[in-house]
Design goal:
By secondary structure, the chain is mostly beta strands. It has a domain of 114 residues. It contains no helices and 22 strands. The strands form 3 sheets. It has a 15-stranded antiparallel beta sheet that branches. Strands 2-3-4-5 form a 4-stranded antiparallel beta sheet, with no helix packed on it.
């Protein structure tokens, strides 16, 4: 692996979005007809420098058979915006925030040690100062990118590794994770992938087909007239309007002890779709959609004691029908 840049400039919360940068560092990989552009972590010039999502594995562009699976889903980009990010991106819930005093550090795995600025509850939509960025290494080959992030903050420390591998047996992408606790306190919480698919620039609506391997249940945040659960997934009765969003925070099936998860997202208009499956103990699923993207967000629970290593995977298979 080769080291990547790690210096960090002061950040700001809820920044106004600016034009998309064109000079951020990327790696381009390909295999089995799939071509991807991976944004590399860089605290000076990286595509994403917010404090919500893991910096490793951001995919701004992935194509197969003329179909584009990932793209910007927002009208303009700011690398410091909490959600100015693309692709199958991960967020780890905060570690140590509740026990930290104002001015102390807490962890966001994949980002760094952040500074607690107030006594207010943690806000994932806020950008916190990064006081300890840790050390990063990146390894690039023709069909994969390997990321490593190591960090120590008091009794909390980790060695986090993530690999993006384009598969050769089928058109797809495999994400492999390893989180080793190198500190003295447990690393507890949850991690989820936001799955910002933007298949062929689809507008979320009747052409957006979402299938689940269970009969879904859950409560919508509002009484929406645009979306409903079905016996096999989620159905939209009309296209979402500009600025419109839908949300369900407790999407689930009948088995609360389910291990692993799966889902399918298909653009009926273009024919392109993706099947996803992940390992780990499933806590719950969040569903969020706006006109540009419809996101299944499976949350899995992590409890990594000192000296232990947690491993999990996510696999995506691209298809056309």
């Amino acid at each position: 692996m080769k080291p990547s840049a790690n210096t960090h400039s002061p950040t700001r919360a809820h920044a106004r979005c600016a034009p998309t940068p064109t000079d951020f560092p990327v790696a381009r990989i390909s295999a089995n007809g799939v071509h991807a552009e991976i944004c590399l972590p860089d605290s000076d010039a990286g595509y994403y420098r917010g404090t919500r999502f893991d910096w490793a594995g951001v995919i701004r562009d992935l194509r197969w058979r003329g179909h584009r699976y990932f793209d910007e889903w927002f009208p303009a980009h700011d690398p410091l915006c909490h959600d100015g990010i693309c692709g199958p991106v991960d967020e780890f819930t905060q570690t140590g925030y509740e026990d930290a005093a104002e001015g102390d550090e807490f962890l966001k795995i994949g980002v760094g040690a952040l500074r607690k600025t107030t006594d207010a509850p943690y806000d994932r939509f806020q950008t916190y100062p990064i006081s300890n960025k840790g050390k990063r290494q990146t390894g690039i080959s023709a069909d994969r990118v390997d990321f490593q992030h190591t960090l120590t903050s008091g009794d909390l420390a980790y060695d986090y590794r993530k690999t993006l591998q384009l598969t050769t047996d089928k058109p797809g992408l495999r994400l492999e994770y390893a989180l080793k606790n190198t500190g003295a306190k447990p690393l507890e919480g949850q991690v989820y992938n936001h799955n910002f698919f933007t298949i062929d620039g689809m507008t979320t609506g009747p052409d957006t087909e979402i299938r689940l391997p269970f009969r879904p249940e859950g409560d919508w945040r509002e009484a929406y007239d645009s979306v409903a659960l079905t016996d096999t997934g989620i159905n939209f009765s009309r296209e979402l309007n500009a600025g419109e969003k839908v949300f369900m925070g407790n999407l689930h099936g009948h088995d609360p002890a389910q291990t692993g998860y799966a889902f399918e997202l298909h653009n009926r208009k273009s024919g392109a779709g993706v099947r996803a499956k992940g390992s780990g103990h499933l806590s719950h699923i969040v569903f969020w959609a706006c006109p540009a993207t419809a996101c299944i967000e499976p949350y899995t629970t992590r409890q990594v004691h000192p000296g232990q290593t947690a491993r999990w995977t996510i696999e995506y298979e691209f298809f056309e029908r």
